[in-house]
Amino acid sequence: MRFLLNDTSNVHVLIVEPAASVRMLITDILRSLGYRNLHSAGSGKDAVKLLEVEEIHWVILPLMATESVNALQILGLILNEPSLNHTATTLLLEPNSEDYCLPLAFEMGLLSWAPKSYIKESLASEFQDLMKCFALNHGNVTLTAADYLRRFLSEKRMHLSRQSLEQNLLSCFPGSAKLLLNMAEAEVLAGNEARAIDLLSQAEIIDERLGPTCKQLRDKYLKNVSNINLSSRENTLGIKTVVVIDPDTDVLFAATEMLQQIGVNSVETFENGLLAFNWIKQCGTEPDLIIMEWRLPGLSGPLLIQRIRQEGFLQVPIIIASSLVKRDEKPLLMEMGVDEVLEKPFDRTTFFSVIIWAIQQNRVPTEQKSLERKFRRLIHAGQNAEAERILAQLFADPRVNEGSKKGLQAEYLFSQADFNSACDLAVQALKLGGDSLSLLNIVGKCLLKLNQFEKALQCFEKANSLCSINIERLLTIAEINIKLDRTEAAERACDAALHLDAANGPALQAKCGIDIESGDLEKAKLGIGMLDSVPRIASYINNRAIALARAGRYEESITLYKRAILCLEPKWPELGTTVAYNLGLAYARYGDYDSALHILKDLAYEPKLGIQRKALALFKKLERTVKSGIRLFQEEPEDHMGNVDEVSETSVKVESDPVKLCLDSLMVKIAAKRGDIGCYLIFNSLDEIADRSKDLIKSTPRFTHRKAIATVKSETLKTGT
Hints:
The chain is of the alpha/beta class. Among the domains are: 12-159 and 674-717, Response regulator (Rossmann fold, 3-Layer(aba) Sandwich), CATH 3.40.50; 245-344 and 357-363, Response regulator (Rossmann fold), CATH 3.40.50; 534-651, Serine Threonine Protein Phosphatase 5, Tetratricopeptide repeat, CATH 1.25.40. The chain contains 32 helices and eleven strands. It has a six-stranded mixed sheet with strand order 5-4-3-1-2-11. It has a five-stranded parallel sheet with strand order 7-6-8-9-10.
């Protein structure tokens, strides 16, 4: 989690202290550091009331062990109340008499602590040190809290607890050179010299600038250690399979060597983009990381990443290692969810820096772009609960502008099939200056779902003018033109996709469908022969025929079925009979029983055909229907392909009332997770926590979030008052 501790003009600070003179001392110090939004409370009970009505980012308080509401109870409240999860806490403790509570406090998400002092210079220095620490950790609350916790555990010689802390931090921030050094020190103190040596070696490999620091640690702890053989490297990145694609064999060799030096044993290398794609596709398991050049033989970078995503590999981080990405190709990187671009030439330190950052941001994102990318990946994977957590985190971040928030909200509502609301919010986001490309896509998708084909086409064509090499969008444009009976325009869009990637499966399928519908059966047969999955074209034809029939274009629907049968039966008789069954079903739906019986009779009494049982059952129903004179279908039955019905035509009002997905409604069902609040779920003390610490959290104060409704008077300190 990140919050704006160093944004002194905007962060709201709550100072809790029973003694008025100490409150004023802390207030004066914070004012001198630039803080403007300062609130104060004289007790823990008053602090809870303020938290109910004010947006507080940082709470500074003493332990208050004997009061009705103490500091640990407030920590528990912040931890368990989703609306407060963004709030950080600092404890001011009496040295050597109150620090017994720190292990439990850090388990509950404490940010920092300082010895309680009544000397202005001393206390000011503590706050300045916190701000410096926060800045060095780039605003990361977890790493800042870990620095304070690490110092405490080292002073108290709690080596097992520290070892556990460092291991959990490395799992959250894999490959961090700083954490490797801390882990090495913890391992030495815990008696594991061999692992410490390996970790120091890896830290030097990852960042050559750490050589002097590593030497100091060796001299301090390992000077007399010898004869330790390292049989294998520890995998500090926590990844198993990396695919590296580059026509330069020197780059492949160097990347493989560097990755193996930090414990990645499975590195698959390819000089050709097509060979790489075929391996990834046949492997069937998503790699943990892909590093690829942009200009590749066989299948170039722009096409390769699109095929990888089309194949359903949406979660794998992709790093483009190239200096050859053109300006007009860069929008595609965003659309395909590329994680980082590593400019060539690069050195060892830069290589590891980019890879480690990409893996960390994919695992525990902290930056806006990384959070948005993670959100989209979760939505695509159907992991809506986790996607809601990311959305809530973005909504709570004041640095994220309203256009971005509404756009992300629109994507979330689209995933929930609320197309009207999603469309409305995306249009609002466009007006607020949100990302044009992604918003045009979401508006177009909403309008397409709502059968507003002309408007949808306008959106996708505008998006295509911003990035013309997105094959999926070109095929969507082709699909819409087919629905609008603009066969030539559909063919142009499809040809544009095939011009980019002549062997692209979805593009070949779309082209076959257009050829069948236009009556060019010879070309359609040739195209079908090039498809990886012929059943998909049968499914496509069936969907299209149903759509035509529902639009009252019965004859065109029948003609499409017949053409598909002529294309499929010679080489794919099983699929041909499936389409024939659906043709018979179409005749039956619309009361042409003679034609239906004629087709189904041949299918019903041919034992070699897989469709026989269904055809026979329908044939007998039709015979009974003809005799009784009662219409067979009161409602349209499911076809053999099992396709989902399309949305019926409807009149849609895009400019509906604004729909607000309230942050509070999201937050109320989202519990804090690992890394959300300081070291919560990262640190668990392995040493005995004092019973008196546990006694302080036997109860939790009552809390009602009132959204800044001023039901209690607060002592708000403003500059100059």
